[in-house]
Amino acid sequence: MNEKVKEFREYRAAMNEKILAADNKVMKRIFNLDTNTYMEGALSTKVKEMLGLVSSMVLRCDDCIKYHLEKCQEQGVTTDEMMEIFAVANLVGGTIVIPHTRRAIEYWEIINQEA
Amino acid sequence: MNEKVKEFREYRAAMNEKILAADNKVMKRIFNLDTNTYMEGALSTKVKEMLGLVSSMVLRCDDCIKYHLEKCQEQGVTTDEMMEIFAVANLVGGTIVIPHTRRAIEYWEIINQEA
Amino acid sequence: MNEKVKEFREYRAAMNEKILAADNKVMKRIFNLDTNTYMEGALSTKVKEMLGLVSSMVLRCDDCIKYHLEKCQEQGVTTDEMMEIFAVANLVGGTIVIPHTRRAIEYWEIINQEA
Amino acid sequence: MNEKVKEFREYRAAMNEKILAADNKVMKRIFNLDTNTYMEGALSTKVKEMLGLVSSMVLRCDDCIKYHLEKCQEQGVTTDEMMEIFAVANLVGGTIVIPHTRRAIEYWEIINQEA
Amino acid sequence: MNEKVKEFREYRAAMNEKILAADNKVMKRIFNLDTNTYMEGALSTKVKEMLGLVSSMVLRCDDCIKYHLEKCQEQGVTTDEMMEIFAVANLVGGTIVIPHTRRAIEYWEIINQEA
Amino acid sequence: MNEKVKEFREYRAAMNEKILAADNKVMKRIFNLDTNTYMEGALSTKVKEMLGLVSSMVLRCDDCIKYHLEKCQEQGVTTDEMMEIFAVANLVGGTIVIPHTRRAIEYWEIINQEA
């Protein structure tokens, strides 16, 4: 597995474990909700993951972006579709989103090569 | 037409006109891009409008939310689908999004009664 | 009851009801969590409400600020303590927080006169 | 004086007075710094007010925008210059800044007619 | 001393020195205010540091979070209390705060092991 | 060339190329606008770059800050002027901007030594 992907996933898993181990009820429920929100419903998981991604881009959180890029890739989002998500994010959020888009396109390429 | 809808649309149109009349090339191009971004492409206009809406919600801009609610309604987004967009926005953006969700559900109801 | 307080509370209650009536599981759980988070725990409700207030101030959400001002008042926060919360918010969040502080001090005065 | 300008200035002055009367040392120093920052220095007050305005626009604070529009007008900023500030704000900050630009152009017109 | 803590503190100290050496009066006063704001007053330093921390979390600034984690640790904040601060931050600020919470819990563990 | 400058520029150039190669019309126009916005106009390029910098600081984007620091340096902005831009950013945006100011002063020193 690519080093960047591996590092991201391992740190994420290890720290999530620490957070859950601290046994705070609110934190645990937030983690639980985070899983439920993206399940199939009136909207497909694919659309919801795109919604999660664009939100993460305009709020400019690189780790959240990576996570949703992985989920979008699993859901079969194509590169042309991805570029249109990037376009909405950069239009609505402004050029301040460009550096995050650079890191996003790099990670998108990596996870598509892995697949 | 409902007074809230009428007021929102008229102020928006009048001020957009003033901005365009000032004839600044960058501002005109941004307005132009704003139209092009949501056109049918690899993603449907419906999906893109949902992306625009969720971005507006997490960035907490009431006027942008109203605008995309109208567009989503034109694209046939149902109330169940809308509630799932609200859910993603409130999960990712936090409870700070709730007051905007209150105003969104009010406006969503109004424009659906108008339709 | 003061008109500003009445209007804020009534709109809030009416729209919360609409949101809950739409019966989206994620939204309902977020509302539920919102109540649980501020309950007595390792930290007192008083401290948690102050944490909720300062977060609302630096994120600049007037309705959230009003809500936590009411809760802080119920918890016996004094005006001197409140001013120190305002100070942290304006220092960390910058002068962009000042207009929200103006509206906060007005509302704080009103709810203290009501009490 | 135009009603919108009058209302903005009076509320601002009255609430600033309340904040200062509460006699919190940190708040008073922040207000004091707010005055000093925009004084003539290596950069002119005109340039600094433009910096204050563009910051207020990308952070999307309408009252801060109004305040700096007034200061820019006092410093002789022209409408063509103002449109270029709006352009930078809308490019960097994204279309989420457009609704604030609508309110800004309205206020800019009013204060220029007053002058 | 742990490498992460050492690196953070040394870079912070070295750059603060550069900023102060540039001898800009406003920057110096902001640094000065930053110290005064958290002093004992109507609220204890402990509560104020918790307010500073939660503000840093919802505004998502990792360096500010580290700084206030250190101060909270000095003030005797327990891990159970810390988890409740994290809970408020993640509820109000949304899941976008989770990656910062991961880095926070790692740093919190390190500085508690050092102590 | 300094390693930090080299790394920043090379990654930026390589990823911009990838984004443009993906051939999304909206993204290409946003990049194009980004160039046009800062051209000489009613305001000088120097002033516009300062506006771009202060916006990047209050929105807290390190890569955007680096980019505009380079452009400001090319436009002859002095260190005294730069400190006053930093002062506006830290006043308006709050102490949350300080960590970005630390990285900014480090980069500013590097690019001035290169020059």
Automatic annotation (TrEMBL), chains A, B, C, D, E, F:
SUPFAM superfamilies: AhpD-like. InterPro entries: AhpD-like (IPR029032), AhpD_core (IPR004675), CMD-like (IPR003779). One of its GO terms (molecular function) is peroxiredoxin activity. It comes from the Bacteria. It holds the Pfam family CMD. Transmembrane segments: none annotated. Residues 25-105 form the Carboxymuconolactone decarboxylase-like domain. This is Carboxymuconolactone decarboxylase family protein.
